[in-house]
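Teaching note: in complex prediction, the entire set of molecules is handled at once rather than each chain in isolation. The prompt given to students was simply: 'Predict the structure of this complex.' The entities are:
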Amino acid sequence: MTVFLIRRFSQSLAVLLVMSLLVFVGVYAIGDPVELLVSAEADQFERARVIADLGLDKPLWEQYGYFLLQSFKGDLGTSFVFNQPALLLILERMPATLEIAFAAVILSIVIGIPLGMIAGLRPHAWYSRTIMSVSILGFSLPTFWVGLMMIMVFAVILGWLPASGRGDTVDLFGVPVSFLTWDGLTHLLLPAVNLALFKVSLVIRLTRAGMRENMLMDYVKFAYAKGLSHARVIFVHVLKNILVPVVTVVGLELGNVIAFAVVTESIFAWPGMGKLLIDSIYRLDRPIVVAYLLITVVMFIVINFIVDVLYSVLDPRVRLESKS
Amino acid sequence: MNANTPTLEVRNLKTHFHTKAGVVKAVDDVSFTVGRGEVLGLVGESGSGKTVTGFSVMGLVDPPGRIVDGSILFNGSDLAKLPDSQWRHIRGSKIAMIFQDPMMTLNPVLRIDTQMVEAIRAHDKNVNREEAHRRCVESLGQVGIPSPEERLKAYPHQFSGGMRQRVAIAIALLNKPDLIIADEPTTALDVTIQAQILYEAQKLARETGTALIWITHDLTVVAGLADRICVMYAGRIVEEGKVEEVLDQPMHPYTRGLIGSVPSRNKRGTALYQIPGMTPSLIRLPKGCAFRDRCQRAQEECAAEAPAISYPAPGRAIRCIYPYVGDSR
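The expected output is the structure of the full assembly:
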């Protein structure tokens, strides 16, 4: 286990290093932020002062070296636009994103697994076919379009739910959250459902496939031969076997949702990290883009680690292999 | 029930699979009985319907298959007429089953004790934890698993194939069933383990009076184990009788072919006999005897209609118009 941890940690550091270099060079190649930051009327001197202030007069390798040095001290640079530490800006927006991300993932599990099990148990019944057809829609309809349609129907035509923003928030352990107030909850619902749509379809399909595969296994027949009830066979024997692939995919999807909820956040004007990222890319605000992607990488590493741990809880065979 | 009632009496059982391609008569008019402490060998090649016969008795035939006709009298009452909810209480408690591949029958993600205790508690909710645990340990000990206390905490992948099959047998024994159906339980095991398990099985039948149905394609296994054998071909029992009689004086050409193709010491150096042709598709079984295309003795009458059961001697039954009678091999 210790060896596993050390290896994981050093691999992660290498990934972070490569990632930061790529993003640094990439954003540098796209364009010059000075054009956007300095007003058109500024004179030569003012221009030079801004460039020197931002450290953009130095060669790229020196800028990168300075960034690395600072990042070991926990400073991922200062935003060109907001003139605030990039890390702080991102962390401020993070709770909002985490909230819809978790809401979406929980929805996808709570809806996806039961529906997938039903569809897998009775693959030829009309309701199973309906579930599968709808899940194809969930897969293939573009998120932004569904989001707009949801706003049209539920906010504009029916007027049941608000179309944008976060609503009232309360502090939970010092972090503002929406889901504990009624107003916040109504604001949360549409974006969370919008974000969950694709994941629900994914979980349905995975669960159904696992269900169909596992129901044919000898161990299921043997469990029935012991005289166990349907409920026991399905919810204990089969479900535990199905969960391994589902946990993997849901874990990776969670990372995906947190990092790239951009579309949904933009449509519903949800004040999360995704919106900050998009704005920063437009403004070539390199420190924020770099810091954002580094945080994303760290998050994926952490999630993958949690998934690995969950594996060993679910599947005893994994436990032994990591020991030897 | 009185003492003479056989443990299991299957009468004219028909289990058919209604597929799009047609009706597959996997089990077609099969009758046999097994008494207390008796070991019945059910022999046939792959696809002869022996496994489906076993599943039919368990009530575990998967759709599109179902029992279309016949009765399964277990201790005198007909299982085929029971609703599934009541059949469930007999499965695993009165009739247990052991499967072919021990690597696949245990659930890989559940501990052995979980899988054993649930088999007890499925039939008796009142058994407390200590009692259930004690019975599990006892049952594992009975099938020769060393230090059963510790092994209960293990997962299936920590056992070898032979040990897993022993665990499966221990689970089958947990509720002291009247009948155990063993579906090729030793096929996946190596020969020494096979011999041990056969010995245990025989001992069990003798000592506890448990009836055994041993499904296999291996004649040498039943030769040493069974009291009586039924030879199945294309969903029907073609020959039945005491094991010595059938093996010494096979009457049906198919049985004779099977016995001829078993390797033995005095056939060393000569090519093994093969039954010509292959098993017919069960969907479009030809009229008449299903074996006639592969049979050396087939005549025109064999194609006319399926041969009826005849009883050439007490305790013997065959389905053949031109059996080998009177001549020895």
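Point out the following to students. The CA atoms of residues 24 and 286 of chain B lie 13 Å apart. The interface with chain A takes residues 58, 60, 88-93, 96-97, 99, 101, 104-111, 118-119, 122-123, 155, 157-158, 168, 171 of chain B (CB under 8 Å).
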